[in-house]
């Protein structure tokens, strides 16, 4: 059944890809500056490009059909869309959870450059397909059978499948999120455990450091790592926890392996599954995924420690239009990142826009009056990415 | 929990497993026909002896549903209403006809055999296993009685005999029975496997019902895939309801009459604010009992909220001629992460002179019982509550009498909570005793609460989740004391109660209830849980042990 569906979608994809090229979705901008979504649409998935205008306000620029299908939901922390700003090419890659294809889109032309799929078990119907990319390889975490697919980045934003690696958590969990830095790939599993891999040869090879997180142990399974970010120097891995509070964990990975995480309970706002460091690494942005607001904690990149920062007010149209918050993006690649963007999942999905300010050891997060910008192409938006991406 | 694309997943994982199965369940009534009461079986000489088999079918719309089958000659009746008196024995033989090999595939949930499944057939707990919970009955939690922790009935075995001793002081009222195998309760209740059980004698405590024609309505709910909270269908005594402007079940009444309606919310997860409208105007209903326990005084209300598994018994006045009259459920807000419980009519109320013929009451003595436990002759079918008011009996003779004035021996705080790692899961559902670690139910777990026969405990139950939950405890009713820290106007006895969602800030919504463990009959180990059945199946449940 699954194979026939995949074939059907691939035939359709070929047609749609041709149509996309023929109609010439050219942005024409010499210095593109976008926030992009993986719309995760069920029947005809797409990536929607928003231009970043004055004061960080987003304007819908163009929808690019991937030619495949999403699932309209899944893990908060799986990055379904990632950006690559390499010396040789500028690409956005998006996953199609239902059929398993990874599609590359050329940012300069806003056209599909190519697509690839992994093995027959490489799909993400249950909870999506998370991505992580560097200049050589793209890694896809497939949630159905917990495999990490390795794809080689090719010119023209195309990909070729290399192989896939079966992974699982200490308790048999499924891969939920991934992040890469240098030769290290770090994964979270949905059972409270985490693991790092050596990707120097392309294919992930476990570093033998699979372990349950501290918060998972302390809570006896009630809290577990979900989203991941890694500091610019590769010294620390930071985990946003699925939790009844705002729970963050930090692991020293300077040895090349995960060490026991240090757990921070930062307050009462529910769930902290998505996180993102500011470009200057002074703030950690936290999407209170199950709640109605965004938090920020102060981060000391020298010590890897966190302290309480600030929390936004209730975001506009919570419940009436959307019900979950997910991935984060930033306007700028320097400082605290300028305007902070957050995916809002719901009947009317969109992107919230928040102004970040810091002063004298305090911070604030204020939603822009024009927020949110609606994503009319998404039945359930969970993943966004900024282009150009943060440098690490 | 919200939908997403779980429907696709659900079909891929499990939904197809029944496609080739035989239609085992009896045909169900067509839309827009007159609603009939279920076949009713009465106790005789202190005993109701009956045999039911659990089967399943797929209807023309593709819905898989389970059913309780009662063999009536060559015909099969579905989910009969069981009627007993205080002090009676219910001898109920349950066989498991879920023999379809295609049903072997399990759900996405990883379920294992309950430890100590030593009652009945034992073996692993699967979608094909079953048992029965007698919801609301204040009876023993031991093997052959109302035990859901150690009893398993497997396909292909001779069946299992329940022997329920109805206490002599059992509150008269409406109860219900349904499967309760951990991990699969929702599947089996989905759309079908549920029936009413009535302990007779309401008129002794609430003489207002004397002489009234009685209707027993069981509201069921079915999803295409049981654990996918997407579109669903409600049925009234198995007759499909429809959203507004669709064909509705027809409830007939005689002009000018009052009827005594006994309504069970046997849905999987629907919180139901019930109303009766005449020409779009809500009418006053005379509330007689909640959860099978007669109220201290009748109450005139426009809306009766019953959570999933709750029951309400009330008197309805027939509509005036030429009016548009409906029995309806209103919207109920279940919170940011809750499932939409939408308004819709449950039936159109029409005037008719034929209403006295509506209640289908067949003598169980006519039913062949080959291969099953013999069924004794049944009592004469009744069409209404006795005509002559009996002397009113004080509620002091009912179970839990004096609870209001009892001194609590223990105070406990419990709370509901949830965690989402994404929109589709994994989702953790917890009910926790404050101070203990949050964990999902495991069949081999130790009791989260241990108490003793004789204890009277006040429990404050908070909802720290962003959706409404329905608290239920087996083997006993509890007394309502407070809602959100404020004393309630009516200290009703309940066995299931809604606890509204937390908005995300401010105090957690809560109820405070009084638990009565003074009856030695209930010594043993049983469970408390959320009666949103998906939550229960996913572990929002724990054990309580009442030591002798």
Could you please describe the fold and organization of this structure?
The complex is a heterodimer of chains A (392) and B (548). With 392 residues, chain A is mainly β. Helices cover 7% and strands 45% of the residues of chain A. In chain A, the strands form 7 sheets. In chain A, strands 12, 13, 14, 15 and 16 form a 5-stranded antiparallel sheet that branches. In chain A, a hairpin with a 5-residue loop joins strand 17 (224-230) and strand 18 (236-242). Chain A is globular and about 45 Å long. Chain B has 548 residues and is mainly β. In chain B, 4% of the residues lie in helices and 39% in strands. Chain B contains 4 helices and 37 strands. In chain B, the strands form 7 sheets. A 7-stranded mixed sheet of chain B has the order 15-14-13-17-23-20-21, with no helix packed on it. In chain B, strands 26, 27, 29, 31, 32, 33 and 35 form a 7-stranded mixed sheet that branches. In chain B, strands 16, 18, 19, 22, 24 and 25 form a 6-stranded mixed sheet that branches. In chain B, strand 2 and strand 3 form a beta hairpin. Chain A binds chain B through residues 1-2, 42, 70-78, 98, 125-128, 176, 190, 219-224, 226, 242-244, 270-271, 273, 289-292, 314, 318-319, 323-324, 345, 380, 382, and chain B through 2-6, 8-9, 12, 108, 336-337, 417-426, 428, 430, 437-439, 464, 466, 504.
Mind telling me the C-alpha Rg of chain A? 19 Å
Count of helical segments of chain A? 2
| Domain tally of chain B | 3
Q: Which runs of chain B of at least 5 residues are low in confidence (pLDDT < 50)?
A: 1-21, 101-115, 354-382
Please give the radius of gyration of chain B in angstroms.
22 Å
Biggest sheet of chain B: strands side by side, in what order?
15-14-13-17-23-20-21
Helix share, percent of chain B:
under 10%
Question: What is the overall number of helices of chain B?
Answer: 4
